[in-house]
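This part of the workshop introduces the protein records we will be handling. Each record describes a single protein and holds just a pair of labelled lines. Instead of coordinates, the fold is spelled out as a row of discrete tokens. To make this concrete, we reproduce a full record directly below:
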Amino acid sequence: MSEDIKLGVPYEFQLNSETSQGDRMCFTSTISMAAAFLRPDLFKAGNGQRDDQWLRVVNRFGDTTSSTAQIAALRSRGINAQFRIDGSVSKILATLEKGLPAAVGWLHNGPVEAPRGGGHWSLVVGTPKIRGLGLLFHDPNGEADLVNGGYVSNGPTAGRFVRYSVKNWAPRWEVEGPGTGWWVDFGV
């Protein structure tokens, strides 16, 4: 890859949801960003925020945290996607090179040497020209502290095009070893 990639994906901040689900809808906010990029016609002005609109679709199939519900919602709207547990940085880079984002589920709590937690979802939307500099994310909860765990900022735009180093993010994603990351593949 000789050039950087920065996909024009719209950003959603999960904590400003008009529902009571904001603190647990990272997956829904992440998938709504991808859906808005892949099929912008799905979202109607005046019907609330995109992630709240997407939550209404997802709720027809199950809970906001369910991968089965998210995939069913995507397919119901004509977006082919697959939940996978074989993610690697090379697969994410290949997806970005096709012009597609990648939704990734990772552990955001605890130190990088021992990540833990119920998990968190965000969307990989790019990479700098020099791969070692990391990946660009739309993190719906703000900017994560990858070294110590938790978040350094939960501001409404803090997670927009945030750069996470592969060194400190990949251990939180591939927790069962190389090639074990949870992700939603839109390139199927």
Summary: The first strand starts at residue 5 and ends at 6. The chain has a mean pLDDT of 94. The CA atoms of residues 143 and 153 lie 5 Å apart.
